[in-house]
């Protein structure tokens, strides 16, 4: 198979259509809300999937975020796979039925719709990563959303201060509307002083990796990350990787980043946050643009990992035999 064409992947408009179709077909199981707007004014949408979906029930909540990086279109297909699988298999597959009766699932299919549209809208891909926010004093466009989160932002040499860089961190933490919208959404899930979201996966491509905090330091434990926390991340991350054949490792073992989403989710919000780097392992598999023919296989490949994370969402520490 050759490389992908833009038409191999859903457009952002097609994603919104799919979300609306799922709501219409499964009104008691699926809802969606616009949680805010991108720099260029596009809707950033969160899908909720659970039994009695209209009610905010006392069930552990799990968040899946996709497409922080514009060109990582396979991650949007991952969101659409989860939407399809969790709806069509509810009431049929016993595990999915049990999980959706006891969990509230949130899916944000595109954190960076402006970047996705920019990368996909012409006849050929533009290899774009960042959002589409202008930077003052330069023609260089865009902030790397995954260097713009508000935990140890810019601390440690894991991002760039140059607007022309692909890892530009922005002028301040949460300066990108897309980062702020998702962070505000997560903060809005603090109910009665308790963060309702207990677990999270941020989907990226590529490398076939399961990554966990911290990314800003090589240290295995740090302020806000105890030995039990680190052991739980490692055990759960390894269990997830056992299901999809990815390589499990601490984020910083890949390379140091600062202001990336997982560090904020964990240190600021206490959420067990993983970063998945999907197919392929290397540029030889198509890099950011694998052919559309691999989409069914490479999205279904993460089915068990997602269900496993949902199972542990009541208490991740269970996996090391400890109770929170
Ligand atoms: O650099 C990133 O933001 C992620 N990789 S990607 O190729 N999709 O851009 C990885 C972030 C994981 N965190 C660390 N490596 N610290
Ligand atoms: Ca429910
Ligand atoms: Ca709830
Ligand atoms: Zn990425």
TrEMBL record:
The keyword Signal applies. The active site is at residue 277. The keyword Hydrolase applies. Its cofactor is Zn(2+). Residues 8-313 form the Peptidase M14 domain. Keywords: Hydrolase, Metal-binding, Metalloprotease, Protease, Signal, Zinc. Belongs to the peptidase M14 family. This is M14 family metallopeptidase. It comes from Streptomyces boetiae.
